[in-house]
Amino acid sequence: DIAFGDITSLDMSLDECDTFDGKILRDEDSPNRVIPRCLPWLLSSILPGLVELDFSNLHGGPKDEGDYISELSLFNSTNCPNITKIKWDNRVGGCYFLRGKDMKSLDRLNELYIDNILCDWRFDKHFAPLMSQFFVETSIIQRFFFFACKSLERVSMKGGKYVTFGEMTKKDFPQWALIRFVRRTPSLIWFRSDLTQENIRLLSKERPEICFCN
Asked: In which order are the strands placed within the sheet that holds 52-54?
């Protein structure tokens, strides 16, 4: 028999859909890709031995007015102190998630895979007016891209995009944002992204210990 405490991997991922082909899908367009908040709350409370999480192809919160957290915050160091790896490819959700506060208490987190993530300020609702400035380099919002996660060693965010405010179009994560993330993550040793070759050469001189992939 396997006890709940012996389970180390939780895979809640779904098959890929057309989220990134054509229009930008919202929760109301694909309700079956939204995680009910009660589910991660329950699983995080009964699976204390988790080491790996996979939420790929699921939409993420916050979703409701006054909601300050996403699903990952429930898998905190109190409930699941051993989590070292998170995979959430093709995540569609708000920009607030990128600040990394949901993972601040995950002291052992060292692998993060969020390829093809789509950040849409409309998902942030309560924070929407502020989050529309998330990818403006001169904005006062400077601490993002998992700023709170100081133990990250392997990160993949290739294909990351965001929805612009006003124009409502999808654009790639800015190069300056990717560069800033590398410079602010001292533990990083492997990074896959859409950095240009020129910027990879620049960062390789500053951080020769990092393996850059694209």
From this structure: 9-11, 52-54, 85-87, 111-113, 154-156, 190-192, 211-213
